[in-house]
Write a structure and sequence with these properties.
The structure is a single chain. The strands form 6 sheets. Strands 1, 2, 3, 4, 5 and 6 form a 6-stranded parallel β-sheet that branches. The chain has a 6-stranded antiparallel β-sheet with strand order 14-12-18-10-11-15, with helices on one face. The chain has a 4-stranded parallel β-sheet with strand order 21-20-19-22, covered by helices on one side. The chain is globular and about 70 Å long. About 40% of the residues are buried. It folds into 4 domains: about 150 residues, 3-Layer(aba) Sandwich (Rossmann fold), CATH 3.40.50; about 100 residues, Elongation Factor Tu (Ef-tu), domain 3; about 120 residues, NADPH-cytochrome p450 Reductase, Chain A, domain 3; about 130 residues, Nucleotide-binding domain of ferredoxin-NADP reductase (FNR) module (Rossmann fold, 3-Layer(aba) Sandwich), CATH 3.40.50. Helices cover about 30% and strands about 20% of the residues. The chain is built from 20 helices and 22 strands. It is α/β, with parallel strands linked by helices. The chain binds NADP nicotinamide-adenine-dinucleotide phosphate. The site of NADP nicotinamide-adenine-dinucleotide phosphate has 26 residues, from strand 14, strand 15, strand 20, helix 18 and helix 20.
């Protein structure tokens, strides 16, 4: 049977869109006889030509302030510059955008691509969708995929690209699991079969409404394509992956900025850059390449019974039985490394497992009750439970394995399906005018207790690593250049900077930059500055970050207006930065309406940024 051809382009920063797009290629081929070619969007004009493609499906995330991911920026520039309104009139398309509603400009890249394709004459053959990581991507992706295949087949049959496939024979994308009366679970059986399940006390292993269902809709089982052998080796040869360029730096200072009574400790660190070119400006962020916690890796190896194989070298190849079109040896695993190295440095073992992993775990589980529960957790019917108890509680792969003791996955599953360990971002709070070879940033130390399904104590991945490494340790870094989080060119523009907690970091960078500009730029007049900083801590005696520096900027007249909130101090009238914003509402509204002030907000994106935005909107209405 001849197969249909569809172009699948992905824009991916962290690997999510890439893995979704690659998974789609396999489903297309295995279950729908559709031949999809998958490429980075930036491979346009090298691997594919838009002028020649009749059908395109785009899967893309956004990065920064909604900008295209790094492998999609060339693609975006190309279609943005295109002048011919009929340029894509031959094309049918749809977009799956990935984003997080906690961040501003949700799914912006997907949305602008979608709009631009329409402007250039392309026709959407199936509604584009915007998947929200805040509630679980699969909630949108699953139903979207379900509808995509029939829509694709219909479109392909209309455009007559090739003709021999018989659409009627094609199977559905979602497997229906029919439970026979034999394996139909009952509450009694769940409890009596073993003591592993703690009935309704344990939300991960049991929920009565799901246990009673006789039909579950499971996601398609991902196909393996890798063959992994573990080779005993006396040498510890770990050659790092060379496909991504990182700059090198050395940790030269680490200091705690808070006192012992602080609720969260905040650390400040300096990295000394090596001689290679590393350019940054005030407002930029630095990406830190980190490693998983040794103890967590040890627990995972132990749980999987692989401790004695930890130092074995991974020999990864494409399996001779592979039928996956997208089969590739993962680029984030170096060609020569041990199992321990891969789990420590290359693979994200902390992210909550996606449903496709849970689906794979089903077949690696011997206990029937555990098997059934894993099916429930990855099923469409179990979506709410999956989101509430796995995603929202940030359960890791190790937590899941601890809850399902009879699950014994193969090494290949973890290597092939777990995402790459991505570098973490921190705002730089130093200025290159001070030292082009030193960057300073801060982070708070987060501890997660073993509660709510989490089976072991843990800290933030990168901050824990930064806390543990010795001074003098090499740290690989990249910059993330901010498109919008920049000082304006005209220095008399009023700046309203709002940054509670470590969110103040980039503003310290701004103020330092302005302070040093006074000395280094001819004609720079401090009287032209109109700077406002709204900062929030919990207790001014315990966690007032950068106190001395802020006072110095005030004395130098670089910081004209400073307001502090203290959320846990009794009798202090300003709990949150919003209270200080309200107290200065009239003046702020005037600056915004009449002086084109720029408002910068940095910090907890989930709640604070939303609340600050609402407060400012109210102020503007009130003082209009
Ligand atoms: P935090 O936990 O955000 O707390 C800082 C202050 O904000 C506390 O006084 C807190 O009060 C208060 N707060 C809580 N909810 C608030 C709300 N709805 N509105 C206004 N204020 C609120 O501090 P953090 O641990 O330093 O975290 C800062 C956040 O900034 C993190 O989400 C981090 O990812 C982000 N960030 C960090 C950097 C960096 O370079 N390190 C850069 C950019 C963004 P209570 O807790 O007492 O209620």
């Amino acid at each position: 049977m001849k197969k249909w051809r569809v172009l699948l382009g992905f824009g991916s920063e962290t690997g999510q869109s890439k893995s979704i797009a690659q998974g789609m290629v396999d489903i297309a081929s295995d279950q729908h006889q559709i031949c999809a070619e998958v490429f980075d969007l930036d491979e346009v004009d090298k691997q594919f030509k838009l002028e020649e493609e009749p059908i395109m499906v785009i899967v893309t995330s956004s990065t920064g302030d909604g900008e295209p991911p790094s492998n999609a920026s060339k693609f975006w520039r190309k279609i943005r510059r295109e002048k011919n309104p009929q340029y894509l009139s031959h094309m049918k398309y749809t977009v799956l955008g990935l984003g997080d509603t906690n961040y501003s400009n949700f799914c912006n890249c997907g949305r602008v691509l979608d709009r631009r394709f329409e402007e250039l004459g392309a026709t959407r053959f199936y509604p584009s969708a915007w998947a929200d990581d805040a509630v679980g991507l699969d909630l949108t992706i699953e139903p979207w995929l379900e509808g995509l295949w029939p829509a694709l087949k219909e479109t392909l049959s209309k455009i007559g690209n090739p003709t021999e496939a018989s659409i009627n024979n094609l199977s559905e994308s979602v497997t229906q699991l029919n439970l026979t009366s034999e394996n139909k679970p009952t509450v009694e059986r769940q409890i009596s079969s073993s003591n592993k399940f703690k009935s309704d006390i344990d939300n991960i292993t049991y929920s009565s409404n799901l246990a009673e269902l006789t039909i579950l809709t499971l996601p398609p089982k991902p196909q393996h394509s890798l063959l992994i052998n573990l080779i005993e080796s006396s040498e510890d040869k770990n050659l790092p992956s060379s496909d991504i360029h990182y700059h090198h730096s050395i940790l030269t200072r680490r200091e705690c900025l808070t006192n012992t009574d602080a609720i969260k400790s905040v650390m400040s660190v300096d990295l000394q850059l090596s001689e290679d070119e590393f350019m940054f400006e005030a407002g930029d962020a630095v990406k830190i390449v980190c490693a998983n916690d040794d103890n967590e890796v040890h627990l995972l190896l132990k749980r999987l019974g692989w401790l004695d194989k930890a130092s074995h070298q991974l020999d990864i190849s494409i399996s001779p039985d592979n039928t996956k079109k997208s089969a590739k040896i993962p680029a984030h695993i170096p060609p020569l490394c041990s199992l321990q190295y891969a789990l420590t440095n290359c693979i994200d073992i902390r992210l909550s497992p996606r449903k496709n992993i849970l689906r794979l775990f089903v077949d690696c589980t011997s206990d029937e009750d555990e098997k059934r529960r894993l099916e429930e957790l990855c099923s469409k019917e179990g979506s709410e439970i999956y989101i509430k108890y796995i995603l929202e509680e940030h359960l890791s792969i190790l937590d899941i394995l601890n809850h399902f003791p009879s699950c014994k996955p193969d090494i290949a599953i973890l290597i092939e399906f777990l995402p790459a360990l991505m570098p973490r971002f921190y705002s730089i709070c130093s200025s290159p005018l001070d030292d082009t070879r030193r960057i300073t940033f801060v982070y708070s130390v987060l501890k997660f207790e073993p509660l709510n399904g989490r089976t072991y104590e843990r800290f933030g991945v990168c901050t824990n690593w930064l806390n543990k490494i010795d001074i003098g340790t090499k740290v690989s870094i990249q910059t993330r250049i901010s498109q919008h989080f920049r000082l304006p060119l005209t220095l008399d523009t009023p700046l309203i900077m709002i940054g509670p907690g470590t969110g103040v970091a980039p503003f310290i960078g701004f103020l330092e930059h302005l302070n040093l500009s006074l000395k280094s730029i001819d004609g720079f007049d401090v009287n032209n500055l109109n700077t406002w900083l709204f900062y929030g801590c919990r207790h001014r005696q315990h966690d007032f970050l950068f106190e001395e520096q802020i006072q110095m900027y005030q004395q130098m007249n670089v910081l004209k207006h400073f307001f502090i909130a203290a959320s846990r101090e009794e009798n202090y009238p300003f709990r949150y930065v919003q209270d200080q914003l309200k107290a200065n509402g009239n003046e702020l509204a005037n600056l915004i309406y009449n002086r084109n002030a720029i408002i910068y907000v940095c910090g907890d994106i989930k709640v604070m940024v939303r609340d600050v935005r609402e407060t400012i909107a109210h102020l503007l209405q009130e003082h209009f």
